[in-house]
Design brief:
The protein has about 350 residues and is an alpha/beta fold. It has 15 helices and nine strands. The structure holds flavin mononucleotide. The site of flavin mononucleotide has 22 residues, from loops. Flavin mononucleotide binds near residues 40 and 247.
Length: about 350
């Protein structure tokens, strides 16, 4: 399907799935819910809200350490603040000690009341893996099961898991890992179809997602390399997954959820908005970030990565990007976007 250039970004709410439709109804009812992936430093509350407004049906927090939660680390708890408008939301935790994970899960349920609790068995980062957290657990499937059982036994919301295809290329075993997770009581499983050693290189192996869907009774969310609306449709056709999770494809492009929904529903894929509409999304996103952070300068410094993503690929965008990387206020960013638009877009709509 061809991306139409003329469609405008609709206002927040136009693409929202019904708030009261539970994640399970969506998964079982064939809606193929679209998930914004957990992403440390990216899937924070403002971005989650923005993606919900563009049609993400479910969002997941960035991962938080079970140890940090138990120690009542202030920064760890900061990561967990969310707005009711984000629901349905899952909070993701990681750790390698079943009792500690259970304590952290109970605390999360009691204090934050998310819609589900997700366990991270996928993080490939050394600092996490060295302590057996994240994908480190994949070397010991008894431990994986012990963690799921411990968490499940203390919370009443669903326990879901996110895994990779295996610890290493030699030991790629997504079906075995997934079956063990299901047996231990995971309610939903997301597979990022790469091994830990692949990190983010190579391609996600969608055949593995299809094999896991085939083997499991619980709903399976497919994840890896969905970069466009059309990719979402291809993933569903290839794997028959119950839901689709998107991470990097949303960077500077929260409208990917709108495009994915259109593709899944057999409608024309709107494609990226025109530049001026894109700039309006940047402003809306920055406002949400400032409102959340409360300190404008700090919010804008953290927001620079998003500014980089939003302006990627713009004609003569390098100079604009360099200037945006210096801003400490929304007004300054706004000035730069305006003068860019006046200079570069005078000859009619450019997208
Ligand atoms: C910046 C960044 C941070 C991430 N942080 C997390 C995380 O906190 N928890 C998690 O389970 N996965 C995390 N991931 C992995 C993504 O959720 C996802 O599995 C992966 O990027 C593959 O999906 P994609 O091809 O759509 O990007 C992160 C990925 C990125 C790019």
């Amino acid at each position: 399907m061809q991306a139409g250039r003329s469609l405008e970004v609709k206002s927040c709410g136009d693409y929202l799935s019904p708030m009261n439709q539970s994640v399970f109804e969506m998964l079982r009812g064939g809606r193929t819910p679209l998930y914004l992936a957990p992403q440390a430093g990216v899937s924070e509350s403002p971005f989650r809200r923005l993606c919900r407004s563009f049609g993400a049906d479910v969002v997941v927090s960035e991962f938080v350490s079970a140890e940090g939660l138990r120690r009542h680390d202030r920064r760890t708890h900061e990561y967990l603040r969310f707005d009711d408008a984000e629901r349905p939301i899952g909070i993701q935790i990681f750790g390698a000690v079943p009792e500690a994970m259970a304590q952290a899960a109970a605390l999360v349920e009691e204090v934050y009341r998310p819609d589900f609790l997700d366990i991270n068995f996928g993080c490939p980062v050394k600092k996490v893996v060295n302590r057996n957290g994240g994908s480190g657990c994949l070397r010991d499937l008894d431990l994986v099961q012990a963690i799921i059982r411990a968490v499940r036994s203390v919370i009443s919301i669903p326990t879901t898991v996110k895994i990779r295809s295996g610890w290493s290329e030699d030991s790629r075993n997504p079906v075995e890992i997934a079956l063990r997770c299901q047996e231990a009581g995971a309610a939903v499983l997301t597979l990022h179809a790469r091994s830990r050693t692949q990190m983010y290189s190579g391609h996600a192996n969608w055949d593995e997602i299809a094999a896991v869907v085939e083997a499991l009774e619980i709903p399976v969310i497919g994840n890896g390399d969905v970069w466009s609306g059309e990719d979402a449709l291809r993933m569903r056709e290839h794997t028959h997954c119950a839901g689709i999770m998107i991470a990097r494809g949303s960077h500077g492009a929260p409208w990917i959820f709108r495009d994915a929904r259109a593709a899944l529903d057999g409608h024309l894929v709107p494609g990226p908005p025109a530049v001026l509409d894109r700039f309006q999304v940047v402003r809306d996103h920055a406002r949400l970030a400032i409102e959340f952070e409360r300190d404008e300068e700090r919010a804008m410094i953290e927001f620079r990565k998003h500014l980089g993503w939003y302006t990627k690929g713009l004609p003569n965008g390098r100079v604009l990007r360099q200037a945006l990387f210096e801003v400490t206020s929304l007004a300054a960013a706004d000035d730069l976007l305006r003068s860019y638009a006046e200079k570069e877009l005078v000859s009619g709509p450019v997208s």
